[in-house]
Amino acid sequence: MKLKTLLATTALTGLTLLSASASAFSLFGSDDDDTLKLGYLVKQPEEPWFQTEWAFAEKASKDLDFKLIKMAVPDGEKTLNAIDTLAASGAKGFVICTPDPKLGPAIMAKAKSYGLKVVTVDDQFLNAKGKPMKQVPLVMMAASEIGQRQGNELVKEMKKRGWDQSNTAVMAITADELDTARRRVDGSIKAIKESGFPAENIHRVPTKTNDIPGALDAANSLLVQYPNVKQWLIVGMNDNTVLGGVRATEGQGFNAQNVIGIGINGVDAVNELAKSKPTGFYGSLLPSPDVHGYKSIESLYKWVKDGVEPKKFVEVTDVVLITRDNYKAELAKKGL
Ligand code: GLA
């Protein structure tokens, strides 16, 4: 299925669920209905990344014959309400990408009170002491390694263009409170430093929100501090962060000739790569939202149905650089 069709279908279904989530019984059937029901809760349903996870979880539900309940959980209150709704509908468990890792203990307490099984995806829960809740199964991308790949690809492209490193700088838009984001960005900066890039030209700036407007504001505040930089490399934890950085450079008169941004997620970069003219957004690292979506719910299904406990940690390492030249072919290889 083409990515656009797939995402449109998923987004529409997601919206139906959003608007109707109050009436769990009418929508999902009641407790007496004996079809197995499993939830898939995501923090940012507007990101194609999560829509792709949903689409592949939906595929698993068809292959394995269970009912998938997709829910958007942008904040803590909606997350806890969603768990009530799931329990009322008779669901036996859920996969979740939490809007805030610190909600981990509250989510687990509520799930336990209803006897629901929980598998986490993408972002790991933290306990009250801020330490990872390693006993909760997790499917996650290899954050440091993918970050390092981002740094290496940025340096490779900069060298290919023969840029003078003395007037080139790195804009690293950070979100350190999210462990996967911190590890990706740190990995990227490590790789850039190890290539011999001058450390004093690497600038970090935190974003307030993990979306394009948040990253744009962060990037703007950085750009005004370094008016003499001639070329920018943009680092960030995902496509939207890097896109915010690219949009900010455009506001200061930069373009595809003097900016290289490489995102992470791939599926969130399709519209940008499809633009008629190149922008500073050079490419994106496409991991495996398909694998995250399918494997996480499949492991939950086997846990509920056959009592097979999921592995505590599944790290997904597969990643490919997509650019304007190869993105269609690479997405098609994954069935997107
Ligand atoms: C985090 C990010 C998402 C996506 C996933 C992938 O949740 O916020 O954009 O990158 O990780 O695991």
Distance between the termini: 6 Å
Structural class: alpha/beta
SSE order in H/E notation?
HHEHEHEHEEHEHEHEHEHEHEEH
Strand content: 15-25%
The Rg value, from CA coordinates, equals: 21 Å
Architecture per CATH nomenclature, i.e. the level-2 architecture of the largest domain: 3-Layer(aba) Sandwich
The residue-averaged pLDDT reads 93
Q: What's the name of the CATH homologous superfamily of the largest domain?
A: Response regulator
Bound molecules: alpha-D-galactopyranose
Strand order of the largest sheet: 2-1-3-4-5-11
Low-confidence stretches: 11-16, 18-26
Return the CATH topology of the largest domain: Rossmann fold
Whole-number tally of structural domains: 2
**Helix fraction bin:** 40-55%
Total number of helical segments?
A: 12
GO molecular function, one term: carbohydrate binding
Family: Belongs to the bacterial solute-binding protein 2 family.
Keywords: Periplasm, Signal, Sugar transport, Transport
Subcellular location: Periplasm
